[in-house]
Amino acid sequence: MATVTRINFEPVSDVTAMYRAAFPVLDKTLVNPMNAIALTDGEWLTLSNTAPGKLERATPIGTIGACAKQLAFPLWNERGSTDIQAIAGNKATIIFRGQFEFDTRIYDPTALTASISAMMNILQPVKVATIQATVAGAGVRNFSGLVGSSYDDPDPIVGYITRLPPNNGGKLRFIQGWAVRNGCP
Fold it and tell me: What residues have CB less than 8 Å from 184, skipping those under 6 apart?
């Protein structure tokens, strides 16, 4: 289980090649840092089907192992970032497109279900699911984060492992790799 700290999502590649976009958050309570389940940098969001143009978590965080069924994007803002709260509509910044490589603490390398594989290999695909991680000084909570996948997974693959946590200071390094899989975006 990973440990979530103040900074959980750090670029390895040049950030000028990425296109970042800000969208309003569907549930504005998620940008309040006092909320126990506030959004954290490195969590994965998706554009809402019920409220077009608004962001929501890619997975329901009440169900461990629930996988994202549509394309998801990583959150660029830190938890409690005042710029999210100050912008009208509480807009959060996601990495919307472009090539990138990041180190993240929002992952679970050992999550195993019928549809989730353990993270074991370089260039193994990763997808988004509800995970548990330890929050420094605050216990365990659920996040929308990265888990292992396989090349024939019907769920959307969002990247590929480029460095495993034991060789990277406890952080997972991945490269973006959005792909259309078996009819899913």
Answer: 69, 70, 154, 155, 156
How many other CB atoms are there within 10 angstroms of residue 135's CB atom?
16
Q: How far is CA 169 from CA 22, 105, 173, in A?
A: 30, 10, 10
CA distance 83 to 114: 40
By C-alpha distance, which of 53, 45, 104 is closest to 72? 45
Counting other chains too, the contacts that 177-184 makes at CB distance below 8 Å and 24 or more residues apart are 177/125, 178/71, 180/156, 181/153, 181/154, 181/155, 181/156, 181/157, 182/154, 183/154, 184/69, 184/70, 184/154, 184/155, 184/156
* Neighbour tally for 155: CB within 10 Å: 21
pLDDT one-digit tens code per residue, 84-133 = 555 656 888 899 888 889 999 999 988 888 788 888 899 999 999 999 99
Q: Under the phi-then-psi rule, with left for phi > 0, alpha for psi from -120 to 50, and beta for the rest, what region is 123?
A: left
All residues at 6 or more sequence positions from 66 whose CB lies less than 8 Å from its CB, including other chains: 59, 60, 129, 130
Amino acid identity, position 135? V
Q: pLDDT below 70 — which residues of the chain?
A: 1, 78-89, 178-185
Which tokens go with 158?
């969002």
